[in-house]
Each structure stands twice: as C-alpha cells, then as structure tokens.
Specification:
About 30% of the residues lie in helices and about 30% in strands. It has about 325 residues and is an alpha/beta fold. The chain has two domains: about 140 residues, Quinone Oxidoreductase, Chain A, domain 1 (Alpha-Beta Complex), CATH 3.90.180; about 140 residues, Rossmann fold (3-Layer(aba) Sandwich), CATH 3.40.50. Strands 3, 4, 5, 6, 7, 14 and 15 form a seven-stranded mixed β-sheet that branches. α1 packs across α10 and α2 packs across α3. The longest helix has 24 residues. It is globular, with a radius of gyration of 20 Å. The two termini are about 15 Å apart.
Amino acid sequence: MFNAIVIDKNDEGQNVAMTALESDALPEGDVLVRVGYSAINYKDALAITAASPVVRSFPMVPGIDLAGEVEQSSDPRWQVGDKVVLNGWGVGESHWGGLAQYARLKGDWLVRLPDAFDARQAMIIGTAGYTASLCVDALADHGVTPGDGEVLVTGASGGVGSIAIALLAKAGHTVVASTGKLNEEAYLKGLGATEVIDRAALSEAGKPMQRERWAGVVDAVGGNTLANACAQTRYRGAVTACGLAESMNFPASVAPFILRGVTLYGIDSVMAPLEPRERAWARLARDLGADTLESVASDIALGDAPGVAADLLAGKIKGRLVVDVNK
C-alpha cells in the first residue's frame, strides 16, 4: 500500500483526496520509482482545482514533477538505486504523477539526478526551475550577453521567475524583475535582481512599438505583458515565452519582429528531448547554490497539497512549494 493524491470525477463534479492504493493500481511503465519529493506547480494547481481541463483521464494522480530512487526496472539504462528526476511528459495529466509515494514510469522520461542535488533540492527546482534554465539557455544560444543590456523577468516572484533571476544574475546579467508583489523587493534583489518594477507597468495594452530597453526577456505570464515586453525589446534581442499566468492571449503586432528583428522563442518543458533537459539540469547544478534554493522553498506534507492549489493560482505563493510525499 502507498499514499497518493487522487483526483476523481463523477456526475456531481471533481473530488480530490489523499488515498491509500495498492501497488498493482499503478499504470504501465518499465521503471518503478520510490518517490521522495514532488512539488505543486501551476499546472498541478489547475488540475487539483479543476480551473482548467488539465486532467485527461480519471482517476488521476497529479504531480508533473517527482524525484526519487529506482526500485524496479526492466529498462537497461536504469538500475535499482539510481537517483532520478522527472519533469513533464504528460505525467499528472494523462499518466499518474508525482504526488504519491510510488510512480511507475517510462525510462525515456527520466533524467539522472545531478550529484549536486538531493531529491528535495531537485523539487525546489522542479519544472519551474528546469523551465527557467531552458529559457536562460535559449537566450545564451541566441547570443544575449551581459554587455547587451538589461534582461526582464516577468512573474518574478513565482517559481520560474525566481530561478530565472538567480541563473541570469549568476551569468552576469543585469536583471529587472516585474512582479505584482512589490513587498517582495528584498527577496527578489536577494536572488540577484538589480531593479524591481510593478507588473502594472506592463500589464495594460500598449503600443506595437515602444522604447527599446530589454536585451532579453524571460516571460512566464503571457497576455499584454508579453506583448509589451516584445514591443520594448532591443534590436535583434530575444524573448522567451513559457507561461500564461496572466493570459493565454498574445495581443501583439508583427512590428517588433520585422522592424527590430526581435526573436520570440516558445519554451516547451513538457516534451523537450533529453539533450536540452540534461543541459538545463547541468546549468542548474553549476549555477544554483544551496542558499538560493532554500530562499525560494516552502515545504508541505502530501496531505496538504490539495489545500494550497487555490492560493497558488491566486498568486499568493512565493517561490516553490515542495511536497514531502512521505509525510
């Protein structure tokens, strides 16, 4: 028997509860992982609250992230005792996920946990931090350097934004943090931001072309904020888009792209192949210290997970919610 958060649905609606399950209830897969830690991400909160049709089949164990140890494997790449991390691949949406003490998974979905991190630290990072690292890698590949000017991070006090600030600052960039939580200025500057601006400066509809400011952008919110960020990006700069906390819409024009040569990169963390995943985790292992990780972490027990989802969607959570599935 093992404990899991289970989402089920009937004619009366959706029900979410911590449930004891038999191991044979787990879905098919070639690697059984004993989960140490998971996390609550924006997508998990959508699934738990039914705010968006994230879950593809019922019953479902949510949790798009997990870190733990291989307990059984028929995949020759993975041996008993290997420490692994998983992000995405539809886990927690169409395949039972990480908010459980055990998960049966495909070996293709796993990444070897870097020696720099234990399972809890890996989940402080989670999909949010791994996505932030993919964004920073994309800016670096584009050629954005510290000498090119300021880099904007939107949704700065959230999981993606927090880790993006730390990674960009470590790489030497001047980082401007956009947030609706101006009371978190000390927290954001502690991560490496040099300036904190009110998200209201970007969240209203703006002109198609605006004063050039940003050499690069990490945007986790979409909507008008993303449109304005593109309109303010400097000639041949780059914008990475990885979230929709403000809106899925993109009310922009082509002007920044055809007149300034701005490039907009879509960052997909769910189905990314192994090479960029390993590269992103290598950056995280190299550039994130333990002190930074602790500054963005809040720990909860497995049974507390359903109760915090609404607060995360409402923007009341700072940093990362780490779930100890064995508490």
